[in-house]
From TrEMBL:
Organism: Novipirellula caenicola
Protein name: dTDP-4-dehydro-6-deoxyglucose reductase
SUPFAM superfamilies per UniProt: NAD(P)-binding Rossmann-fold domains
Family from the record: Belongs to the NAD(P)-dependent epimerase/dehydratase family.
A family per Pfam: Epimerase
Top-level taxon in the UniProt lineage: Bacteria
UniProt xrefs under InterPro entries: Epimerase_deHydtase (IPR001509), NAD(P)-bd_dom_sf (IPR036291)
Domain NAD-dependent epimerase/dehydratase span(s) in chain numbering: 12-242
Length: 314
């Protein structure tokens, strides 16, 4: 589906455009008519060839290449990161060298070039304290990994820069995004791992007894709602980006089983101490900007994802 084009196309730089969130956002913004610079270490030809997309090959730590790429940009979506929740549990210093330090350089460079806004994807699934109540943006935080600690530190650095008048910032605390294009990667999302297992006819793995719940949000909803930042270049805020509904791993398995209409073998592994038991994100602050917004239902999102991976006929 082609998106309605905006009245004023912007020059948008998407850092980390080859990843799940970055590639999806690049497609979406280009479809809206923006001029998008896809900044990546490994280009994806199917995205680079889209109308309105310019490709820049570089690492987030390549200062001169980065500076040239963001010159003249109105807004930057910063998805570039080599980190994920479980990777650096025993290597917290890596969070600084691979994520926090490059962010500081990006902020300085963006301010120098007069970029009006930086959009940052934080982690609604890891930064909050563990409770069965829906989290709102002012809820207590309790990061349990270097990854989550970095996300909160990055939020504070960006908000500090905004208070100094360097640029505006939108921070999105995203739940558990899923959908077509999500690749199998350690520590990020159960669905691609389960889909890979289904393709190979092997059991899917569930940590704990299956009662752990997450706020799953379909990638199209993520892109639509994060694109709101392009319409408010000089305003700043922190937003939860989730549906407000917690779905357990057991329920997720049940949805896949029902859609595929077959039995699925499940192997239960010990619960991981870093995992939050339950998380749901109250999205009302964000939804005040888009009244009557309707999220794609979980079953429909899973159906589209299974169809994309040819596990279910269209």
């Amino acid at each position: 589906m082609r998106e309605q084009q905006p009245h004023t196309p912007l020059r948008v730089v998407v850092l980390g455009a080859a990843g799940f969130l970055g590639s999806s956002m690049t497609r979406f913004l280009a479809a809206q008519g923006h001029d998008v610079v896809a900044y990546w270490r490994q280009p994806r030809p199917e995205i680079a060839q889209l109308p309105g997309v310019a490709s820049v090959l570089g690492d987030i730590r390549d200062t001169w290449i980065l500076s040239d790429a963001i010159k003249g940009a109105d807004i930057i979506y910063h998805f570039a990161s080599a980190t994920y929740p479980s990777r650096f549990f025993s290597e917290p210093a890596a969070e600084y060298t691979e994520a926090l330090s490059p962010l500081l350089v990006l902020m300085e460079t963006a301010a120098y070039h007069g970029v009006r806004k930086i959009v940052f994807p934080s982690s609604g699934g890891t930064v909050y304290a563990d409770t069965d109540q829906p989290r709102h943006e002012d809820s207590a935080t309790d990061p349990r990994s270097p990854y989550a600690i970095f996300k909160l530190a990055a939020e504070q650095l960006l908000r500090h820069a905004t208070r100094r008048g360097l640029f505006a910032t939108d921070i999105f605390r995203i739940g558990n995004p899923y959908g077509p294009g999500q690749r199998t990667r350690p520590g990020q999302g159960v669905l691609p791992h389960w889909i890979e297992a289904l393709h190979h006819g092997t059991p899917i793995r569930v940590y704990g007894d299956g009662s752990a719940s997450r706020d799953y949000i379909y990638i199209e909803d993520v892109c639509r709602l994060m694109a709101i930042s392009c319409d408010r270049l000089d305003e700043s805020n922190v937003f939860n980006l989730g549906t407000g509904v917690a779905t357990s791993l057991e329920e997720l398995v049940g949805t896949i089983r029902r859609l595929l209409d077959k039995e699925i073998e499940v192997v239960h592994l010990p619960h991981r101490s870093s995992d939050i038991t339950s998380i749901s994100l109250d999205p009302q602050r964000l939804l005040t900007l888009v009244p009557n917004y309707q999220f794609i239902p979980m079953e429909e999102g899973i159906r589209r994802t299974l169809q994309h991976h040819r596990l279910l006929s269209v």
